[in-house]
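thought: fold this chain, then report.
action: predict
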Amino acid sequence: MAAIELSAREAATLVRVLESYIPELTTERVATDHRQWHAELKEQEAILGDLLKRLKAVTP
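observation:
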């Protein structure tokens, strides 16, 4: 497992970016008819959603 240290400002910025990007990713995933691309987007969405949840748990 890789680990990085983020300042509070960096973590807060990353939270805002993920909160903005994930809904766009969801919209793109829902709109695609290509099964492989849909699966890849769904996996990315799950990974980023988990990262967002973990960041929010440790960000004041």
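thought: worth noting. Helices lie at 8-31, 35-58.
final: tokens above.
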